[in-house]
Specification:
Three copies of one chain form a homotrimer. Chain A is an alpha+beta fold. The first copy, chain A, is 27% helix and 23% strand. In chain A, the strands form three sheets. In chain A, strands 1-10-9-4-3-2-5 form a seven-stranded antiparallel beta sheet. The B-C interface holds B 1-3, 19, 22, 197, 203-204, 206-208, 222-224, 226-227, 374, 377-378, 380-391, 393-396 and C 29, 32-33, 35-37, 40, 65-67, 82-92, 94, 106-109, 122-126, 128, 133, 136, 151, 415-416, 418-419.
Chain lengths: 420, 420, 420
């Protein structure tokens, strides 16, 4: 009964344009494969420069069984290391955030510098060579303030292309000079791909996200043109013109806005586009006005729309004139996923004066809650032996098709010989 | 250390007349095999017609990872479908009971009629054929108001024989015109076979069920004749005559009562017999009197005994003149089992006037609690590497032998090639 | 990704003088192998004679899935049996401690004597032979009051050598005439070997155990001689002389004290030594004075030091003039371990008069809490894919090397053919 098909067989049997088979969302061995082939070999979005604002700040992020220390060194460099003592393997920093001079293992007091070098280890004898026992480094890249790590020895090199393309889009929002107004962690009861797929379409938005539907244009996320009546078709055309006009205006003001889409043709895959906001047109808030009086960077116009940035396999971000919302997805188990959401405002903005925290976070707190329920209901459904993958909408689920396709390609390319 | 024997090897090595080997109660892979070979290929008792009294009523029952919608259609027909959207696999109805016009998936609003047809799916394009995307049907049979489902494509056909035999026994109690006075769910911390075996003998009743021992005759469930003294032997003979007389009286009044036993020689296996009740002789209550003034169907005589009906693999039922108690067993995990108990009374009976709910449910609420403890203690014990299957009593554990034998036969017949 | 190396491969690849590979601490199949090869085939320390002070006293100890009854018979003999009914496998005694006349199974009232014989079983028919259905015995040995059991049919015979060597060391403390002043159970969130390795070095004591550091001499647990300055070297020499003098004094008073070390060259492996206590020199308390006025056995001198006794795979003990602290380690799962600590005082000592319970237990309650945290942090760290076994200190981690070496040897010697 339990003769599970092999991963390569499952990949080969996938029906294009259709949902993935249930095994990909439920099998613990495929979860392990996902960690090893996807999350430990690709660039994973984990946080922002303001997570470690000062020298000596440490931020810990776990990626499955791996634990990574993100440290700001005394020379202001941000570095990453494995959070594992080189003696008997203790976890070095057990809190999510800490401020340290050196990194001292609590167990036997082995002491490492912020550059990872082993500085002190008692009773180890003369043959002991400290220089071989520094902390193991982890590759880290900041893309305009967004921190990506890669646990592989040889990370994908096309992070350079993504950084080059994205920096002009992100730079006007000056993320390095923001602060974290709020950070929230939610465990969703579904596989990480379920969380990501749910992010990659707004087919579900109309019926499920009353708050998000206020700033969002209904026509912005695809529709079947054949089912529109004349009035609706006119509205859709008006929306298209609105986007064209807004792009021209923003680009003239020095803010690149046009779509770049490499969600399916890159290893370090991404997409971006600056999109108008409905109603007052300023920000993803319930009144669609800016939530923070102090605008980001040198932005003067509050109506800069929302610059969206999506990456494979695990992030999305919305940059507005007044704040940034940024989402990091970390698998926890085959059927549990951590979603970490951060709201960033200008580092000099004062809560209660420049912004109200509830107003800043209301739309995405509500949307996250609704999405967590959808992910759980979808995950529960496809455990059934009666489940079979259904077809994607050609008009509204293109980015779902992109991520599932990217995932299967990257999984196939990185399978260990024993699984392949 | 952990080289588990194969399922066919375990079946072959079973010692007749002895308890099953521990693996059958503890191994997750055998739990999976039980679900696929037993629970997804045989007729499973899941509920009663009064679970869906009105058109539009929906009742959800999970059988392992499978989830089944039981729906009363507008034409009063009761139908069953898999509770899985044909688009991206969401669970359609997330509550145990609901009242609906159509079945609408919360995720993307795909909409199904109560006959399972897909009525509406937005943005799917011209090539999309709704007629191929209706809900997957599940076989359903009502036996005098007791609902059985079968998830196999080709369900066992001898459900017809069971229905033909049982309908005359059950019909006088007119189950379709009852209502659910109370429904209780208990998770027992043992394998489902442990729960069933515990139900299939009263060897344990004397020392464990003070409440149930009031209406039950001690001699009704087998004994070793050699150990009786003269006084006890005389009592046993008196009990035998009592049964013979009662059967004659009840059958003359139009209520079939004699034993039918197909617990071990049928795929859709069952046993029935109407048995006298001790003391006042009316009902399974603490004072052995009817708990509900309104008798069922056209029954006039409150002293109709208790018609017991046992099915393989997962149910038992007691039909009395005034109420019905009905038990459905659903495996949850290798070592966890759901027992769902329902008490039914005449649909026109009024709580507080015609019956007192505590009085109605006291005997079986207490007995369920005691049985749950016994199941847990037995399950805990046989995890030990020192456990070896002990012998059944030839006088009191015949029905335990029946269900374990039936189980092994059905498991062997339905094993996937990979396990067999 | 998940192609785990075989156990023999892991054993072969272990780097001497280094920590074990992570698999040994995390893999469920290796946990199962540890139970079968180590805990069910060696002598396991489970409790003390005062756990069953009177005839009819029963003490239940679970060793993984195995459950053992330790019973004091009417003839005062202590015996051990598997806690499993020979009928349908129920757990016989469900509480940790009980007082019984006979052992009666709750399920069907099968009744066993305190010698394990089946005395009564109803309804079993004439062919049933009670003499084949007695409780399965478990080997039990008391070493001066410490109870060891072995679940193997053929237990290691060198328990005799350990008993012969240790009895003179332990006898002065007269454990059989003590009582349990307190017993505490803690679940540590780590593998059992992590718990044991943590016990086998005091390299971590300085920075982690403020309470234990009061009675302990810092130089008693190894150090790197090269890193001492002149003042420290003089202190170390003074400590050495102190030990030599104390041994001579104690042995003259009839208390054997010199080290015996068979931690790595025996199947039933152990080490012992009587060591001086710092400050007032009497007991492992915060003021280093005896916690109980009534000294043990015929001891007159409160300053008898602490006789430590370590056994492989699962215990350590400290015997002082006034009390005994004894520790039993029982694996619960790959990453969970039960530590059971008992404090014993003279059986005639009266709480509140002869001893204050808080004072008696303070040092080890605090130390246990600190060790549980260290074990959890170490276990968490080595789950990382970046973990690799680090080197042991040649001066302070010798006993860690002993237990890991003993473990691998014993595992290799007892692997089932299928794993080997």
């Amino acid at each position: 009964m339990t003769a599970h098909p092999s991963i390569p067989d499952l990949i080969a049997r996938r029906k294009p344009g259709h949902n993935l088979q249930a095994d990909f969302y439920t099998r613990p061995d495929i979860f392990e494969a996902d960690m090893a082939a996807i999350f430990w070999r690709h660039w994973i979005y984990v946080g922002v420069e303001p997570d470690v604002p000062e020298a000596g700040d440490v931020f810990v992020v776990d990626i499955g069984r791996a634990s990574v220390l993100i440290v700001r060194d005394d020379d202001e460099e941000i570095r990453a290391f494995h959070n594992v003592c080189r003696h008997r393997g203790s976890r070095l920093v057990n809190e999510q955030k800490a401020v340290v001079g050196n990194i001292v293992c609590r167990y036997h007091a082995w002491t490492y510098g912020l550059d990872g070098a082993l500085l002190f280890a008692d009773h180890m004898g003369e043959d002991f060579d400290k220089s071989c026992r520094g902390l193991k480094p982890v590759h880290l890249r900041s893309v305009a303030g967004l921190l990506f790590v890669c646990l592989a020895d040889d990370p994908p090199t096309d992070i350079d292309a993504m950084a080059a393309a994205m920096t002009p889009y992100l730079a006007p929002h000056d993320l390095p000079n923001t602060k974290i107004a709020k950070s929230v962690e939610v465990i969703e009861h579904g596989n990480w791909k379920m969380t990501m797929e749910n992010n990659r379409e707004c087919y579900h938005c109309g019926g499920n996200h009353p708050e998000l539907n206020v700033p969002l244009f209904a026509y912005g996320f695809g529709f079947s043109p054949k089912t529109l009546d004349e009035a609706e078709a006119a509205q859709a055309r008006r929306y298209e013109n609105l986007v064209t006009d807004a792009h021209a205006r923003w680009e003239a003001a020095g803010a690149p806005s046009r779509e770049i889409n490499h969600l399916s043709d890159r290893v370090t895959a991404f997409r971006t586009e600056r999109l108008p906001i409905d109603q007052a047109g300023e920000s993803q808030t319930l009144d669609t006005r800016v939530a923070c009086k102090k605008l980001l960077g040198r932005i003067k116009d509050p109506a800069m729309g929302g610059l969206s940035f999506w990456t494979q396999p695990n992030s999305w971000h919305h940059f507005m004139s007044d704040h940034i919302v940024t989402f990091s997805v970390i698998p926890v188990a085959a059927e549990a996923t951590l979603l970490r959401t951060r709201w960033l405002v200008h580092k000099d903005a004062v809560e209660g004066v420049d912004y109200d925290l509830d107003n800043l976070t209301r739309v995405w707190e509500a949307t996250n809650r609704q999405d967590a329920e959808l992910v759980e209901v979808a995950q529960t459904g496809l455990r059934s032996p009666a489940y079979e993958p259904g077809p994607y909408s050609p008009y509204t689920e293109g980015m779902v098709n992109d991520i599932t396709g990217w995932y299967l390609d990257r999984l196939a390319a990185n399978l260990d010989p024993v699984d392949a």
